[in-house]
Amino acid sequence: MVPIIHILYSIPPTLLLYIFYGYPSLVFLIGSVLIDIDHVFWYFLKHKSLNLYQAYMYHRPGGNNEKNILHIFHTIEAWLIFFILSFFNILLWILFLGVTYHLIMDVYDMIKYNYYDVRAFSFIKWIIQKSTKFH
Question: 68: which DSSP letter?
């Protein structure tokens, strides 16, 4: 999903949370958008470049032929860490809600456009798959 869509779709729930939490609800918006920073990390590791436009184009559907890309913040392990941390602080709880909202939008897009194999859903599984390729 393109960043502007993530931003636009995240504004209504942010406003709803504002009713209950006030300004800390902006953490929801941050969590639901900035989770995609891992796309830039992956692009940097592969291409040694921090060009945000090229990283964006690379991760658009059809921008590369790569499968099983590790977007570390999009894995079940990262989600579980966000979940556990959410019990310790209201800001972390709101951040967890934003991350979860983002992941739901991404899964919807993957189903809609049938591209499940592009992203690794588990860091542990990704490590195992990478290690078995070398044996």
Answer: S
